[in-house]
Amino acid sequence: MTMLEKNAATDVSAEQTRPAPVFQPPVDIYETDEMLVVLADLPGVKADELAIDLENDVLRLQGGANGEAEGEPLLREYQLGRYLRQFTINEAIDRQAISAELKNGQLTLRLPKAAKAMPRKIQVSQA
């Protein structure tokens, strides 16, 4: 089992009062010795419109983009809606140290590895 697994089930349990698409944002995941870094594209989403929750080993990202245009649209190719993406994480992640930053429509999640999961070098002493 990997430290971060995509949760295949797309659970949209929140009731919607009007039809709107739910997008699964694309992500890139990188691993260093100290942490996993998740980059997610969330165009149009503001920090106060984004919720990141960790419950029962599931890290859930959800938010929405509200496009406020001036006037009536003549052509609308860019779809707005809700974003939902979730991942299952295991005990190798330090849950208390997870951090998130949203800048220019890109979310950066940093998931530090727990001390027991970090690689370390063991010195051999001369007897």
From TrEMBL:
Domain SHSP: 18-127
Annotated segments matching region Disordered: 1-24
UniProt keyword Ribonucleoprotein present: no
Keywords: Stress response
Matching CDD domains: ACD_sHsps-like
UniProt cross-references to Pfam families, sorted A to Z: HSP20
Keyword Ion transport: no
InterPro entries hit by this protein: A-crystallin/Hsp20_dom (IPR002068), HSP20-like_chaperone (IPR008978), Small_HSP (IPR031107)
Gene3D superfamilies: 2.60.40.790
Family: Belongs to the small heat shock protein (HSP20) family.
Protein name listed in UniProt: Heat shock protein Hsp20
